[in-house]
Amino acid sequence: MLSTASQEERKASDLFVQCLEAEGVERIFGVPGEENLDFLESLRTSSIQMITTRHEQAAAFMAATCGRLSGKAGVALSTLGPGATNLLTGLAYAQLGGMPLVALTGQKPIKKSKQGRFQIIDVVETMSPVTKFSEQIPSGEKIPSLVREAFRRAEEERPGACHLELPEDIAREMCEARPLQKIAHRRPAPDARAIENAAHLLMAARRPLLLIAAGANRKSISRQLDAFVRKTGIPFFTTQMGKGVLDERSEHYLGTAALTSGDYLHCAIDRADLILSVGHDVTEKPPAIMGHRGNAPVIHVNFYSAEIDDVYFPNLEVVGDIAQSMRLLTEYVAPSAEWDFSYFRRMREETLRHVGEGCDSDRFPMLPQRFVADLRAVMPEDGIIALDNGMYKLWVARNYPAYQQNTVLLDNALATMGAGLPSAMGAKITLPERKVAAVCGDGGFMMNSQELETAIRLKLDLVVIVLNDNGYGMIQWKQQDMGLPPYGLDFGNPDFVKYAESYGASGYRVTRAEEFAPMLRHCLNQPGVHLIEVPVDYSENRRVLSDELAAKVCLL
User: Fold this and answer.
1) Class assignment of domain 4-175?
2) Considering the chain, what percentage of its residues have pLDDT values greater than 70?
3) What is the pLDDT of residue 7?
4) CATH number of 192-345
5) CATH architecture, domain defined by 356-547
6) Residue 349: how many CB atoms within 10 A of its CB?
7) Domain ranges of the chain
8) Strand partners for 31
9) Residue 164 phi, psi dihedral angles, 5° rounding
10) DSSP secondary structure, 445-511, as one string
11) Mean of the pLDDT values across residues 198-223?
12) Over the stretch 139-172, which tens digit does the pLDDT of each residue have?
């Protein structure tokens, strides 16, 4: 008969999975290796779904997007060595983008190895620069505390990536530890004096302006911001990752800072005499709201203090739970008779007029303005578009009004290519009732196009739009803008229709501008994976984003 002590023992890999279940993990994305086999066997009989992807990078993108949409850390899995290094870009994507993610990697035995240094690199140190926390699990008894700490750090503000390495000999250990209970945490309240000072500055200003950034992209914050804008009428603009926090059909919405400076929106920013900056940090490529030559003062409202930078050095900080800060500010701030928003209203009309140019053009290949207008017209209010990184990201940020929170998923922090398709898949898995479309350039799509097989295997209903210009369009625009001759940025593409069909997806190709909208509507309403190739004409980059903006004159 077994002793009582031995009856309490369990295999470390079983304990590891039980700890993940205690954290509320529902699925893991990844590519396992032989070093993960004990963990994989423990996972087989658990409540957690294993989603096998075709590349570790894509697994991390999917997990990060699940974290972004749910607030709970997504989980990505790889083996040691090359599997772990393949995760790196996805971890950096989550870390810079503020998305909660926990990466799990395997490793050779650490107590006794018969294979020398085969495939072994120091994964823990490799992950450290792109994570909040990176640790090797040295014994089965340490699993509960390390798992709890990894998830705590990943999910707490500012969210990001964490990493745990489980060596295969540790996975096989017998241990007596038990999972730790996940506890809810409350964020600290803002300082009352800081709230009073912020309210005083707002009411003393004549042309205050509200900036909404990525850190404000939480449900509770959105509600409080909406109440603040409704009460005060203060106009607002967003960073790219702040799109959709408030409905952009609002009369108070001035636009999205797609460009760092020089857009029509920046005329309004330059005229403001106070900017209330909510949820912004310099990790997201910042709009030009500050300078050293007398620009408007900035009030920083965030979960944490500002990191001072050449382009961001706030004059007042309100640190603490953002939703609570905005609730208190709404109570304190009364609309002032001294406020004058007439210039902002005029700039809003001017911006809308310019953004609307080209939206009904029949030119083919399609102009980006027409593509974005048709995309917006067809996508439902709660439909999600997940963008890869390319020229179209700027056009979508400027021209596509978001109606609901987290309906425009783009990356303006790491700004990596290859994330569009996996991000859309993560969104569809997390919110299966929503219509989801990936918007990719031909370059970014081909970096993780193999995940079409994963999407089909998972029976996802998904639309993938590939904007084809046979080159790296954004860099070509920059190259041209610098007066450099074309060089090194062109490539050839496969037949995207046949390519999609080879995986079992449905493939379509737009041949006239007017075909795109009905084609997209058809695909959104049919089950399965659909790919639409859209030839695009980026000559408008130079005309609009370079020449037209350089010649603009801000209204007086």
Assistant:
1) alpha beta
2) 97
3) 53
4) 3.40.50.1220
5) 3-Layer(aba) Sandwich (3.40)
6) 10
7) 4-175, 192-345, 356-547
8) 78
9) -130, 135
10) HHHSTTHHHHHHHTT--EEEEEEE-SB-HHHHHHHHHTTPPP-S-B-----HHHHHHHHT-EEEE--
11) 95
12) 999 999 999 999 999 999 999 999 999 999 999 9
